[in-house]
Amino acid sequence: MSDSRIDALLPAEIAERASAMGVKxxxxxxxxxxxxxxxxxxFIALGGLFATVVTAGSGGVLPYGVVRLLFGVVFCLGLxxxxxxxxxxxxxxxxxxxxxxxxxxxxxxxxxxxVIVYSGNLAGxxxxxxxxxxxxxxxxxxxxxxxxxxxxxxxxxxLDFMQALTLGILCNALVCIAVWLTLGARTTVDKIFAIIFPxxxxxxxxxxxxxxxxxxxxxxxxIKDFDPxxxxxxNLDLGNLTLAGFAGNLLPVTIGxxxxxVVMVAGVYWFVYLREKSA
Length: 279
Description:
Elements: H1 11-26, H2 30-55, H3 64-75, H4 77-86, H5 97-101, H6 107-135, H7 144-157, H8 161-184, H9 188-204, H10 210-226, H11 228-232, H12 243-278
């Protein structure tokens, strides 16, 4: 007797779909791949900005957990836009390793996708950070938004290597689970609900997402370096909020994101559902 269901794909079918998706993503043209990656970087940045605005100035009013929950729920905007509008996100593309492990995608094609998409995500996030800075939105709310931006960025650049690495692993395990669940969905509403809980969980728990950090840290650096009068009003030690601090965060978080996506999600589901077929 076959498994009963209403509309969602079963896990074994999701694995097949993930593998097919990996082939499609790996064979995208370079220009289209890069443009879609720029969009994804911008979408994630907008989710980060939305989360910052919603929770700015609420630290002394609401309990810590409630503030983090609000931050996580609205941050979901980024992946919702990526999945529904169509864009290429580096962290989600670690799932391409399912097609690679099945020998449907070459190592060269896999790395080509990762490099191009990572670069495009960086470009999109940086452009969005620059536009947000030029809009001077950080001065809204009596400067509460800017203070929140600086606090978030400063926290990230002060993580040590191992902490950033492990937070990156945990983060992309949840991101890839969210993407995995959307592959089993059939409607727009299905996909949105599949995204909300894993993504809000990682953001609320303070896990580290490399693409989100391409926005969160640069916007803090821009405020610090180009509006010292604003920063002078705040009692913050921003000594590590520099380009070197940005790189020092991005490296371990990116490695952690790769491990979380490749090992904890793609590798596990490939082993369970596609290993025998590949053999």
